[in-house]
TrEMBL record:
<comment type="pathway">
    <text>Cell wall biogenesis; peptidoglycan biosynthesis.</text>
</comment>
<dbReference type="GO" id="GO:0051301">
    <property type="term" value="P:cell division"/>
</dbReference>
<comment type="function">
    <text>Cell wall formation.</text>
</comment>
<dbReference type="InterPro" id="IPR036318">
    <property type="entry name" value="FAD-bd_PCMH-like_sf"/>
</dbReference>
<dbReference type="GO" id="GO:0005829">
    <property type="term" value="C:cytosol"/>
</dbReference>
<dbReference type="InterPro" id="IPR006094">
    <property type="entry name" value="Oxid_FAD_bind_N"/>
</dbReference>
<dbReference type="InterPro" id="IPR016167">
    <property type="entry name" value="FAD-bd_PCMH_sub1"/>
</dbReference>
<feature type="active site" description="Proton donor">
    <location>
        <position position="243"/>
    </location>
</feature>
<keyword id="KW-0560">Oxidoreductase</keyword>
<keyword id="KW-0132">Cell division</keyword>
<dbReference type="InterPro" id="IPR011601">
    <property type="entry name" value="MurB_C"/>
</dbReference>
<dbReference type="GO" id="GO:0071555">
    <property type="term" value="P:cell wall organization"/>
</dbReference>
<feature type="domain" description="FAD-binding PCMH-type">
    <location>
        <begin position="24"/>
        <end position="195"/>
    </location>
</feature>
<dbReference type="Pfam" id="PF02873">
    <property type="entry name" value="MurB_C"/>
</dbReference>
<dbReference type="InterPro" id="IPR003170">
    <property type="entry name" value="MurB"/>
</dbReference>
<keyword id="KW-0521">NADP</keyword>
<dbReference type="InterPro" id="IPR016169">
    <property type="entry name" value="FAD-bd_PCMH_sub2"/>
</dbReference>
């Protein structure tokens, strides 16, 4: 076969509006659904395709399109989930990168494997979860992560990476830094504990389950789904990328000075002595909750979420994001950092 012959479909001028949760009208010059690793090798060996700018797309829940993408979009559509091993401590469960995250969580719970329930209803795909080290209600991916398989474009090889290799931090990993754009995650394996215990450290969750003496993992999941649905907009109804800003980490000195000026400040102590501030509270106090700028707005029920009010462009979202950042910085001296990637 000629190295420039591709035995699968590459589409041209494909709309990405329905493939991202923010629903911004933008298109990709070239687009392909990736269903196996051999396609990645063939694309790399094709001189015309390998020279194009490349964008890896999962569930599109952590992406803001600022315009059309003049390159090749690799839409990760690898499927499959299975129990690959178990020992006295854990069930080792693998899911392909293209699996929907929430669907995978619910599948694991249906098998009786707890550990992911606090991460229920987070939009996106399994392959994107380690990149962001997604977290919610006291649990992060790193807490249940075992390993992943990562395809390196330059060498056309697959590497198995373990927790220490991924350099997980708050909403961060090696895949957002040193390895950014150098490869793609193919699948992820989780170590789900056999000696499971419910993690109910957040007030909303504990309150929802107050009448249940020993809640099951499924009951925790159901409670968290209900909480999220009451606070966060459904991307299928109102375009959004979930929590738009990271909760900022600040020094104890800055937190104390802010607490003196703002006694209602919401903060959480961290193991390293710093404090995590609630970005949603800062944004609300800066007067942005429920406000709009152009066709993008701050969600009326949760100030941490920016929404597409209908026909928003990437420029609308960028302008709103920058305006919110400027007002929070002016009022509190704290710089907010967006979670989504701008492309």
């Amino acid at each position: 076969m000629n190295s420039n012959t591709i035995p699968f479909d590459i589409q041209s001028n494909v709309s990405l509006q329905s493939k991202t949760t923010f629903g911004i009208d933008a298109s990709a010059c070239q687009f392909v659904d990736i269903t196996n690793v051999h396609q990645l090798v063939q694309i790399k060996q094709n001189s015309a395709l390998s020279s194009l700018p490349r964008l890896v797309l999962g569930g599109g829940s952590n992406l803001v399109l600022t315009g059309d993408f003049d390159g090749l979009v690799l839409h990760m559509a690898l499927a499959g989930r299975e129990l690959v091993a178990e020992d006295d401590q854990a069930f080792y469960v693998r899911a392909a990168a293209g699996e929907g995250w929430h669907e995978f969580v619910q599948w694991s719970l249906s098998k009786g494997w707890g550990g992911l329930e606090n991460l229920s209803l987070i939009p996106g795909s399994v392959g994107a979860a380690p990149i962001q080290n997604i977290g919610a209600y006291g649990v992060e991916i790193k807490d249940v992560f075992h390993s992943l398989n990562w395809f390196e474009f330059a060498t056309e090889t697959v590497h198995t990476m373990y927790r220490q290799d991924c350099r997980f931090a708050y909403r961060d990993s090696v895949f957002k830094n040193e390895l950014r754009d150098l490869g793609v995650i193919l699948d992820v394996t989780f170590a789900l504990p056999k000696h499971w215990q419910a993690k109910l450290g957040y007030g909303d969750v504990a309150q929802s389950l107050a009448g249940i003496e020993a809640p099951s993992a499924q009951q925790v999941s159901d409670a968290i789904c209900a909480i999220r649905q009451s606070k966060l907009p459904d991307p299928k109804v109102i375009g959004n990328a979930g929590s738009f800003f990271k909760n900022p980490l600040v020094s104890a000195e800055l937190r104390d000075s802010l607490l003196a000026a703002f006694p209602q400040l919401v903060s959480y102590p961290q193991a390293d002595g710093r404090f995590k501030l609630a970005a949603g509270w800062l944004i609300e106090q800066a007067g942005w909750k429920g406000r709009a700028l152009g066709r993008a707005g701050v969600y009326a029920k949760q100030a941490l979420v920016l929404v597409n009010l209908g026909g928003a462009t990437g420029a609308d979202v960028v302008a709103l994001s920058q305006a919110v950042q400027a007002d929070v910085l002016h009022k509190f001296g704290v710089q907010l950092e967006p979670e989504p990637v701008f492309v």
